[in-house]
Design goal:
72 residues; alpha+beta; three-stranded antiparallel β-sheet; 3 strands; 38% helix; elongated
Length: 72
């Protein structure tokens, strides 16, 4: 039987960065830009799994400016 802790619903910075396939420093920058919500707990960022999934569904990890889709 698995023990459930309050932190099971959270990922730390490195785990979340791995999930997004980006560098942890890039994720830290996104957190500081308020693009992804995170909680600072005991000196570590914690990101809720469901919020990470919502962010991941709309996130394009490629660097640079994104092309603008125009309607013709």
């Amino acid at each position: 039987m698995a023990i459930i802790t309050p932190f099971d619903n959270y990922l730390d910075l490195v785990e979340a960065a791995r999930e997004l396939a980006i560098h942890p420093q890039s994720l830290r920058r996104l957190i500081k830009q308020k693009k992804i919500p995170a909680t600072l707990f005991a000196g570590k960022y914690l990101i809720e799994r469901d919020k990470l999934e919502m962010f991941k569904s709309n996130y394009d990890p490629r660097p640079g400016r994104k092309p603008i889709r125009r309607l013709l």
